[in-house]
Amino acid sequence: MTETLFCYCCRVHHEKTLMRLFPTRQGHRWRCLRSIEAASRTRRERDDFGRQQSEINRESARRAAENSHHLRQVQHL
Ligand SMILES: [Zn+2]
Fold first, then answer.
1. In the chain, how many domains are there?
2. How many whole angstroms from 14 Cα to the centroid of ligand 1?
3. Cα distance between residue 11 and residue 31, in whole Å
4. How confident is the model at residue 2 (pLDDT cuts 50, 70, 90)?
5. Which H, E and C letters describe the chain, residue by residue?
6. pLDDT single digits (tens) 4-55
7. What is the pTM of this model?
8. How far does residue 42's CA lie from ligand 1's centre (Å)?
9. Residue 77: what pLDDT?
10. 42 lies in which domain range?
């Protein structure tokens, strides 16, 4: 019989070989490698998304500044 441990992330038992002790605020908990990898991937994607979003914001702020500059130039003519 294979040894299993309760995964606090999936709330099911997995084979012990797939499990890693994971530090949480409540102490160390058993968690499967798959859920750890999934979580770190999600975090990376979130970081990428945040970076893209701030670039978009910067770009649109720049365009808005440019537009108002053009408007001022047009009004001077
Ligand atoms: Zn799991």
1. 1
2. 6
3. 9
4. confident
5. CCCEEEECCCCEEEEHHHEEEEEECCEEEEEEHHHHHHHHHHHHHHHHHHHHHHHHHHHHHHHHHHHHHHHHHHHHC
6. 999 999 999 999 999 999 999 989 999 999 999 999 999 999 999 999 999 9
7. 0.62
8. 16
9. 63
10. 4-76
> How many angstroms is it from 18 CA to the middle of ligand 1?
8
Q: Which amino acid is at 17?
A: T
Look at residue 71 in the predicted model and tell me its pLDDT. 81
3 C-alpha to center of ligand 1: Å?
Answer: 14
HSE value, Cβ hemisphere, 13 Å, CA-based, for 18:
18
CA of 47 to the centre of ligand 1 (A): 24
CB 58 within 8 A of CB 74: no
> How far does the centroid of ligand 1 lie from the alpha carbon of residue 74, in Å?
63
Radius of gyration for the chain, computed over Cα atoms and rounded to the nearest angstrom: 25
